[in-house]
Amino acid sequence: MHNITLVILHFRQAKTTQETQQAVSFQLLFTKTWHPFLTVVFIGLLGIVAWVLSAETGRNYGFGVAVPSANVIQYIVIGQQRYLNWGSYFVSGILLGSFLTAKLSGSFELRMPDAQEIIRRILGGITMGIGAALAVEDQT
Q: How many Å apart are CA 82 and CA 104, to the nearest integer?
């Protein structure tokens, strides 16, 4: 009987240790700010993986999101399957991943920026759109 009690206590302790490790992992990933150099290295490695996986599907653009963003909108509006590809899944994953990360970290909130910030964001979006259009035109 004593051995059974020891086994039960061992499993309870192991479960508690595992829960503690999961809590620490969660805290490191979602609630603490990452060091900038670690973040840059991680994004760089992710970019290499993205480029390789993108190239395997015949799309040599890695982290490019201009055309895939348009594909997502076209799929939503038109519904044609040809707009679902690696790039559109990549863009959808960025949106879903950032939303889930913000929710898990407890930092998600809807907020309205001030008028000056809205104008800056609109101008930035227009500038990015022009740059993306020029880049796509340059490759044809």
A: 33
The mean pLDDT value for 39-47 works out to 86
Q: Residues 6 or more apart from 10 whose CB is under 8 A from it? A: none
Tens of pLDDT, residue by residue over 102-133, are 888 788 888 899 999 999 999 999 998 888 78
What residues contact residue 81 under an 8 Å CB cut-off, 6+ apart?
Answer: 75
H/E element, 58: none
* pTM exceeds 0.90 for this model: no
Q: Is 74 exposed, middle or buried (0-12, 13-18, 19+ CB in 10 A)?
A: middle
Query: What sign has the CA pseudo-torsion 76, 78, 80, 85?
Result: negative
Q: Are 139 and 64 in contact (CB under 8 A)?
A: no
